[in-house]
Design a protein that fits this description.
Chain A has 5 helices and 3 strands. Chain A has helices at 5-12, 64-77, 82-86, 90-97, 104-133, and strands at residues 27-34, 39-47, 53-61. A 3-stranded antiparallel beta sheet of chain A has the order 1-2-3. In chain A, helix 1 (5-12) packs across helix 2 and helix 4 packs across helix 5 (104-133). The termini of chain A are far apart. Chain B has helices at 2-10, 31-37, 54-73, 87-101, 117-128, 146-152, 175-184, 258-273, 275-296, 323-329, 350-354, 359-363, 376-396, 398-404, and strands spanning 19-20, 81-84, 108-112, 132-136, 157-163, 188-192, 211-215, 226-230, 300-302, 313-318, 333-334, 365-369. In chain B, strand 5, helix 7 and strand 6 form a beta-alpha-beta unit. Chain B is of the alpha/beta class. Chain B is globular and about 75 Å long. Classes of the chains: A alpha+beta (134), B alpha/beta (417). The A-B interface holds A 1, 3, 11, 14, 17, 19, 31-42, 59-64, 66-67, 102, 105, 108-109, 112, 116 and B 320-325, 328, 344, 346, 348, 358-360, 363, 395-401, 409, 414-417.
């Protein structure tokens, strides 16, 4: 399988590997995929009080394209507002990494991971603010 | 010779390519084989079917000499050898040819779920033509359960096909027992011995084979040449699949590629001659590789039985890392994930699935194929690379983290996609 230079770069030097404690305030966690399908992505975002994603971390079990896709989106979401991050499309990821057709699902998974992390953050922070208003 | 060649091919000083550990996919042509082939490309280029001049006669003599070499390697008679373009064609010819010829006797065929695609896809085609096929399960170690095999035999079973040595996991099926049972039931026995010749003794009499597929390029011969053994006593009949000229006693038409045939003959002779010394050396290398990896990496699983197995193959699953990324990480080593025929797809190996391996472990398997030119130095480098790269990928793996936290991955509700 011929990979693009960008995929190889992200694969060999993955950015933002790791994680935050799930319970930590401002952290949203998205875990998508399944081991049986050959890829699992865990993307975590840390959102500040202004609603800006100030940090992101990932861990991925999957092929080189899956690892590169998740590494790339951790770079992209940093500094974005949640609404801006929600706008990231899999086609942009696929285009940036020059993914071949058989690897498009990796970019889909990365988009899903962002959405899942934001969703998780919103649920958690919604619950927190609901408590605070009482 | 072998040592000199190994030096040339593999010495790190001159090596600018990955370490080759994919000997079950193909092998380099042995220099002795190349030497034998060359005159038949230039000097003795005649058509072996030309009966009217010496060009043809000398080509025919070379073809018959090679036929005798291949026959001797499997304890057959030269008249029982039919040249084909490779083992895929040999299996197509043997299985379809016999099924078509004996279709009046019955419509039932048996094979294993872990066979090579050349057999499985041929069986699928016969099913489309109206034959009924049974695909036997294998045990967790990859070996056939003889009682289950016997139970699958029907009065209308005409042929069974078994892979002597499995190409993905290297296990050796109990061929003598299978052959004896099939002979008692008057069922034809087709044997895919592609990965067996040169690795284990192959004797068509001992295993009661009626048909046998062989390949040149898996035993240090050229690609594009194979052979089908067709038993003469008691006579086995097959219907030709390729027509035009009636070469090979009508069983396979087409001008014979003299140089390829000479190469396969030389390779077969060499394979048998060097089997013992090759195997002894390769077993030491295999044991070194296995011990080295096992002592450095946790959560590694061996696929396939270790006792009934050729030492040339080691198939390991590295839990919590994905196979394709592992192959990418191991770019300094030429290995494969599953067989080369299936590794272009995203499906996990059907052979490992047939052993009852989970999708995860099937996805994370690597086949190490050790061969005539593999050196100890290369094995040591491989151990180093595997240990460091698996470690790196596990640091990246959320599944490894969960495993270390004691989470049972089977209890997790995955968001499948």
């Amino acid at each position: 399988m011929a990979y693009s230079e960008k995929v190889i770069d992200h694969y060999e030097n993955p950015r933002n590997v790791g994680g935050f404690t799930k319970e930590e305030a401002g952290v949203g966690t998205g875990m998508v995929g399944a081991p049986a399908c050959g890829d699992v992505m865990r993307l975590q975002i840390k959102v500040n009080e202004q609603g800006i994603i100030e940090d992101a971390k990932f861990k991925t079990y999957g092929c080189g394209s899956a690892i590169a896709s998740s590494s790339l989106v951790t770079e992209w979401v940093k500094g974005k507002s949640l609404d801006e991050a929600m706008q990231i499309k899999n086609s942009q990821i696929a285009e940036e990494l020059e993914l071949p057709p058989v690897k498009i699902h990796c970019s889909v998974l990365a988009e899903d991971a962002i959405k899942a992390a934001i969703e998780d953050y919103r649920q958690k922070s919604g619950a927190v603010s609901a408590v605070e208003t009482h | 010779m072998s040592a000199v060649q190994a030096e040339k091919v593999n010495s790190p000083a001159v090596r600018d390519r990955p370490i080759y550990l994919d000997y079950q996919a193909t092998t380099p042509v042995d220099p002795l084989v190349v030497e034998a082939m060359l005159p038949y490309l230039t000097q003795n280029f005649g058509n072996p079917a030309s009966r009217s001049h010496s060009y043809g006669w000398s080509a025919e003599e070379a073809v018959e000499n090679a036929r005798a070499q291949v026959a001797a390697a499997i304890h057959a008679d030269p008249k029982e050898i039919v040249w084909t373009s490779g083992a895929t064609e040999a299996s197509n010819l043997g299985i379809k040819g016999a099924a078509h010829f004996y279709s009046g006797k019955g419509k039932h065929l048996i094979t294993l779920r872990t066979e090579h695609k050349a057999t499985l896809d041929t069986f699928r085609q016969l099913e489309r033509e109206g034959f009924e096929c049974t695909y036997l399960e294998v045990q967790e170690n990859g070996l056939i359960d003889l009682d289950a095999f016997r139970a699958a035999l029907r009065p209308d079973t005409i042929l069974a096909s078994v892979l002597f040595v499995n190409n993905e996991i290297g296990v050796i099926q109990p061929m003598e027992e299978i052959g004896k049972m099939l002979r008692e039931h008057k069922v034809l026995f087709h044997v895919d011995a592609v990965q067996a010749l040169g690795k284990v003794p192959v004797d068509v009499e001992a295993i009661h084979a009626d048909l046998m597929s062989l390949s040149g390029h898996k035993m240090y011969g050229p690609k594009g040449i194979g052979a089908l053994y067709v038993r003469r006593k008691p006579r086995v009949r097959i219907e030709a699949q390729i027509h035009g000229g009636g070469h090979e006693r009508g069983m396979r038409s087409g001008t014979l590629p003299t140089h390829q045939i000479v190469g396969m003959g030389a390779a077969a002779e060499l394979a048998v001659q060097s089997m013992e010394s090759d195997s002894r050396r390769i077993r030491q290398l295999r044991d070194r590789l296995l011990k080295g990896i096992m002592s450095r990496v946790e959560e590694v699983y061996i696929n396939g039985d270790m006792e009934h197995r050729v030492p040339h193959n080691l198939n390991l699953s590295f839990a919590f890392v994905e196979g394709e990324s592992l192959i990418m990480a191991l770019k300094g080593i030429a290995v494969s994930s599953g067989s080369a025929c299936t590794s272009a797809s995203l499906e996990p190996s059907y052979v490992l699935r047939a052993l009852g391996k989970s999708d995860e472990l099937a996805h994370s398997s690597i086949r190490f194929g050790i061969g005539r030119y593999t050196t100890e130095e290369e094995i040591d480098e491989t151990i180093e690379l595997v240990a460091s790269k698996v470690g790196k990928l596990r640091e990246l793996s959320p599944l490894w983290e969960m495993h270390l936290e004691g989470i049972d991955l089977n209890s997790v509700q995955w968001a499948a996609h």
